[in-house]
């Protein structure tokens, strides 16, 4: 299945989801407005995400190689770690070095 076909199928699934949410909203009514609103918001977020994926695919950014193929490599030096960089820092949750907790 091509990328375009998969995105089209995903879009159709989102359309079915929105129709189901509308029917559910009609059945539940205003008895649980927060829950229904949350489901509608999640469906809208999914639609926005699919639109971004479609735009990426249309721009030629989707290569099918995954994110790791595009990731920039970071070189880690073999030099020993310089602990002097952290002499004045506080340990998170523990306070400053060489001081006792209250």
TrEMBL record:
<protein>
    <submittedName>
        <fullName>Uncharacterized protein</fullName>
    </submittedName>
</protein>
């Amino acid at each position: 299945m091509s990328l375009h076909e998969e995105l089209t199928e995903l879009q159709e699934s989102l359309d079915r989801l929105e129709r189901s949410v509308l029917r559910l909203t009609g059945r539940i009514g205003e008895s649980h407005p927060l829950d229904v609103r949350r489901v509608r918001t999640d469906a809208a977020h999914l639609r926005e995400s699919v639109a971004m994926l479609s735009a990426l695919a249309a721009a030629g950014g989707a290569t099918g190689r995954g994110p790791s193929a595009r990731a920039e490599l970071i070189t880690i030096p073999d030099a020993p770690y310089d602990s002097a960089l952290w002499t004045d820092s506080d340990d998170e949750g523990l306070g400053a070095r060489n001081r006792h907790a209250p």
